[in-house]
Amino acid sequence: MTLRHIPAALGPIAVLLVGVMCDRGEVRAEDRARPCAALGDCRLDREPQVPVETHVGSWSAVAIAGSPGRSAMVEVSSGGDSNRIELPIEMVRINEMRIDPLRRRLVVSAMVGGDAHEIAIIDLNTRRVIDEFLALHPAISPNGRYVAYVRHYPQISEVWNGDYYLLYDTAGAPSAQRIVIDGGSEAGREIRFDERARPVDASGHRFHSFNFVWNERSSAVQFLDRSTTPEAPPRLVDVRIGANGGLAVSRSAIRFGTPQASPCVQADCRGHLIRVGGRTAFTETGDPRTHIRLDVAGPVAPGVP
């Protein structure tokens, strides 16, 4: 058995048990901690389901909307065989799905309340949900193998003490992809700026972009981080994934190139990262037509804000 910890402020549900099926390494559905309990008021997003589907090779997956009291489903098809898979009850409106045909996994992301998303990992061999976890700003890699995200903080938890960045690999057994942060169990592994120092020094860092952005080969993901030190500028964090799964993480100073869409870009303005012509660019609105080039101005040493 593996313990899943919820912050002590949650009182009687401070510790929940997560059962582990050792043969597949999956988390049993009847024992999985329901992430909605960590949201505080369990507000579900009831907006209409927009069309979401994904197709890779012979595989396809189509989102089917949920309804009050009933979760969304995914219809998975391959070679003429079709199955409907029911998702966890919190997942009412799906906003992204990706198939990894090599590892036969389907990753589903759905909004469950506020800025929180729930991620469900589906084994395409058994057509079952084998893992689920809460995430902020999740980004699924183009090949469907990885999920980069910011650790979710329950609304009723203790005071925010900094952002943590994580990377989930669907190729691993779910039961092996759990780490403990601030006494709570999180999915995946932590993205660290400096292996010799405290991971990320979270108390002094916050997620500055509205999203993570992957390269086309799913071998690197980038995002903007900013120290809470007064007047510290945003930094570009680049995470490279090696063939053996190892991570090479660097943090760089950046300059905003032309055209200058707004003076706030140079100060405290947040925005979206996008890929334009094989490079990472910045846009305040999310509209690629108004993007601003990002130029790397050199590496930032560990410990420098």
Overview in brief:
The protein is mostly beta strands. Helices cover 0% and strands 46% of the residues.
Report on the structure:
The chain has 305 residues and is mostly beta strands. It folds into 2 domains: 1-190, Lipocalin (Beta Barrel); 205-305, no CATH class. It is 0% helix and 46% strand. It has strands spanning 2-5, 15-18, 20-21, 26-27, 53-56, 59-64, 73-78, 81-86, 93-100, 105-113, 116-123, 128-140, 146-150, 165-169, 178-181, 184-187, 189-190, 205-207, 213-214, 220-227, 234-241, 247-256, 272-276, 279-283, 292-299.
What would you report as the Rg, rounded to the nearest angstrom?
A: 19 Å
* pLDDT averaged over residues: 78
Counting helices, strands and paired strands, the structural category is mainly beta
- Which regions contain 5 or more consecutive residues with pLDDT less than 50? 1-45, 196-201, 261-265
Order of helices and strands: EEEEEEEEEEEEEEEEEEEEEEEEE
CATH class of the largest domain: Mainly Beta
Largest sheet: 8 strands, antiparallel
Range of helix content: under 10%
Output the number of helix runs: 0
Oligomer: single chain
Portion of residues in beta strands equals: over 45%
Q: Remind me, CATH topology of the largest domain?
A: Lipocalin
Straight-line N-to-C gap = 40 Å
- The 3D shape can be described as globular
Compute the number of structural domains: 2
Overall number of strands: 25
CATH architecture of the largest domain: Beta Barrel
